[in-house]
Amino acid sequence: MTIPNSTASTAENASSRLPAEEKRIVSELATNSNEPDSYFAVSKRWYASWRKYVNTPLGGGAAAPRPGPIDNSDIIETDPYLGRKSLAKEKAYVLVTQLVWNTLLEWYSGGPPIPRTFIYLYLSDSRDDDDDNDDNEAHIRDYYDMNKGELLDPLSNKSLEESGLVTNQDILLEVDERGLAGLVNLGNTCYMNSAVQCLAHTPPIHEYFLRDHAHQGELAKAFGKLLTELWSSGTNAVAPRVFKKKVDKAAPQFTGHYQHDSHELLLALLTGLHQDSDIVNVFQGQCKSSLVCPVCGETANTYDSFTSLSLPLPSTPTPSISLISCLEEYLAEEPLGPDNMWFCPQCKKQRQANKKLDLWKLPEILMFQLKRFRTSKYFLKKIDAFVDFPVDELDLSKYVENWESCLYELYAVCNHDGGIGLGHYTAYAKMIDDDNEWYCYDDSLVSPVDESEIVSSAAYLLFYRRVGSETETKSAEVSMTDDMDLS
Ligand SMILES: [Zn+2]
């Protein structure tokens, strides 16, 4: 099988369409395609430049240039002896549906087209020199007459006849695109879609919900079904209609098609899921808050659980600040206001105490909210400060009194672009244990994103997971006799 040569189709004039319109059209085409066997490979490099172009904000920010013709040359290798072309070994391509391919080709020309049938052949041909154990990522199945048949073992030496395959029959590629499905926007639901994608890529959450559980709650049932669809629909976008209805029922403030805060949605969703299962406890940490009376030194500690840490951002214009300095600001000791006096049991008097927060126990999954939305009595404003946060290694051992491993790595980000009310939510998530690459989930559009783009001034919610050993206990068990709030 060889790859057809570039078709010399004439590119349309680029002037007639706005970038956002291209994005909308492709997004709709990706959603409307139900054909499971009509994929084309597109160079990841070219696709990423197109995604940058169509995400150029209207009237603000530096515009990304319109990419040139589709260039798939970087994902094709030519055999120097046979002159035969084959797909390059590294996974440097995305799969798009035939409708999307035809549309992009019409707009941009270029090529060459690489239909999915070729990708199947590549997978089965690669068995001899496949030393990085690709077989966990993809299964090839007999798909004669559109019926799911036997799994084909790429390592077997059976001939096609021995495998029961006939010439030109279909074979089915399964699970290669796990976790790469988008979510259809049901009308201002990007806040929900981005939050769901972050949860869907949270390892303990998807591992739990992809197993068969007899969920009691309607919300958990719908969420489990949605995750199963997301992780088995290849690259076809999923419409979360049933799930949205259950969210509306569990948390009526999200009813209708208005833009909401993705953080509020996440907390409501986790609360709803918690009624069905303890798995959401992976988000639960504890902090210790201390009240100190400056007059006599009397201290009272309380322990509170948290699902996310909401870090304040500087209200004065700041070009750049680090996540750690936001955290230090959050943990800093500060006096309570005069309207919030504390009755000191030592002095037996109302005192203006100092309040200090400490991280006490960190959860397996640590979520930060960067508080970009400031509300006051009269106005709502967004803080666009660039917060520099670590991607590979966040070490919090300095800030934690009582825990084992405090080393974290980032695996998902919920972004908010644009102003309040007009803004748009997207998610970045890493395909952990797959290709370990980052992808952008922009409603129904999913595309690869370079790791260098992850840290941006749009970042709103950060999702870290604990890495490394959990056994090095830093200090002994501490009895928590103080008031504990585990609600
Ligand atoms: Zn006192």
TrEMBL record:
DUSP domain sequence ranges: 17-119
Keyword Transcription regulation assigned to the entry: answer is no
MF annotations from Gene Ontology: cysteine-type deubiquitinase activity
Entry-linked CDD domains: Peptidase_C19R
Q: Where is the USP domain?
A: 181-467
Query: Is the keyword Translocase in the record?
Result: no
Any Pfam family: UCH
Which Gene Ontology BP annotations are present? protein deubiquitination; proteolysis
- EC number(s) on record? 3.4.19.12
Q: Which domain of life is it from?
A: Eukaryota
InterPro entries reported in the protein's UniProt record: DUSP-like_sf, Papain-like_cys_pep_sf, Pept_C19_DUSP, Peptidase_C19_UCH, Ub_carboxyl-term_hydrolase, USP, USP_CS
Reaction equations catalysed = Thiol-dependent hydrolysis of ester, thioester, amide, peptide and isopeptide bonds formed by the C-terminal Gly of ubiquitin (a 76-residue protein attached to proteins as an intracellular targeting signal)
What biological function has been recorded for the protein in this entry? Answer: Recognizes and hydrolyzes the peptide bond at the C-terminal Gly of ubiquitin. Involved in the processing of poly-ubiquitin precursors as well as that of ubiquitinated proteins.
Q: What is this protein called?
A: Ubiquitin carboxyl-terminal hydrolase
Gene source species: Brassica carinata
Starting at the broadest rank, the lineage of the source organism is: Eukaryota, Viridiplantae, Streptophyta, Embryophyta, Tracheophyta
